[in-house]
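Office hours follow-up: a student asked to see two folded examples consecutively, so here they are.
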Amino acid sequence: MSAPPPEPPRFRIRRPERRTTLVDRVRSAVAERLAPSSPIARYARMALLALLAWFTTRHIADPSYQGIYGPLNLALHEAGHLVFVWFGSSWLMAAGGTLFHLICVAAVGVAFWRQRDPFAVTVALWWTGTVLVGAGVYAADARRQVLPLVTIGDGPVGHDWFMILEPLGLLAWDQWIGGGLRWGGVALMIGAIALGAWTIAERPRPGA
């Protein structure tokens, strides 16, 4: 009986070891200093919370306050109308501005949650509060329609919340609905700041 043929030699492809470059060292140093438990990140997040608290007081004092994030909120709101116009419903197109805005903010919050960054999630919650505050001020103006309106294109300017509430028979409740949205948004903003402070306090301090 003949011996089995020898197995062919196995070859392993050895990849050259990657050398650590200056860019890698800088990137590693930046990541270390910006880690949630690092002193720089801790103080930066505390400063951000203080800024958000100041913005919140401005929203409470002045319903029309927009903040530096106002243009972004407006852009997302108007983009929502362009997205929901494809559904062929004038009611959905009017509601689409706020709906799309909330969807975008929720997507940001989910992305931060998947990255396991609870502090960033609280910032997204605070941002949601600004959306509700703006929607509340807009809703409370449904009957009076004295707020300046923005539209895209050359078509007629329509009041979103008049178009939302009037078909539902809720136009007479615009002040109540607007007030509920506004103060609900303020409460969410305050709660988000409190949660953000809690996440900072729960993070292990360097050297602890």
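And the second, which I mentioned at the end of office hours:
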Amino acid sequence: MSTERLSIVEATAESAATWNAFVGAHPHGSTFHRWEWRDVYREVYGHEAPYLAAYAGTELRGVLPLVRVKSLVFGHYLVSLPFVSYGGPLGDAEAQRALTARAAELGNDAKLVELRSRVPLDTALTPVNRKITVVLDVVPNDYEATFKKFDSKLRSQVRRGEKEGLVVRFGRDQSAAYHKVFAEHMRDLGSPAHGLRFFERLADALGERAWIGVAYLGEEPVAAGFAIENGREVEISWASALRRYQKLSPNMMLYGAFIRRASELGFDAFNFGRCTPGSGTHKFKKQWGSRDELLPWYQVASTSGPSAPPTGDHSAYGVAVKVWQKLPLAITTPLGAQLIAGIP
């Protein structure tokens, strides 16, 4: 390791291959750290994305992807990374501290700087454990062994959709059907949703690392998920099901299909994604026999800044949520894609 003093620079597109090579070689590097995400943030939402690199001479010692999210409605945030659970600096201890310090400088006019790490960082900041991720250990290449670990009630719920005639299809060509379900589900929750362009651009950027799966009743899409390969793990980052088909348990069949695919392709973990401890979503994820992992996120807030970015479950947005739920999809789908850009 070089003993030269570290310099922190903003990486450019010419550095993409070097950046991804560093991420791929780092023990805590993730798909979310990869350079392709920068292009998605910039192209879909127009966000400034200062991706920082720590160098000692010509030796790359650390990286930190950052995205600046600005909104007249929700305010100004600097996050690593928006919309997903992971980011934060990668590198040795010195690089982590230098990158974190630089991020704080870049975010001195923001309400909040948030570094969303999956592992503890070497920093003087105290982690804020307000979110967890929920992980199921999968038996590689043996879905039946994985399935047998579920209790009898869960196995019955997973099988119910199949008995009702549901089928699950995977592929990039499922993006429109996926988004049809996602947009309606998010409207019913009272939350703005990413537009179809976000998911299509992300699927194109990640290639085979992105999985789009849709459960159909006949030709009607009734549940859908977007998952991302991350090392030996697959994480379902966005999932939805239509409420009017709840009695068919399409959500259970959909998750079962994703878990089956993960096992059959040799992965050893299926990640249900982040949630708030004790929430209804957390209980749903735990019923699969999965385990919780605390997410050590780190924050630098302005004096009057919030302790977290805005979320739809905040009491201040109660009235807005109820109004949103009553609006037609023709309004919530395009408007939601504009609003979600400002909610990291």
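Two things to take away from it. The mean pLDDT is 93. The longest strand covers residues 220-230.
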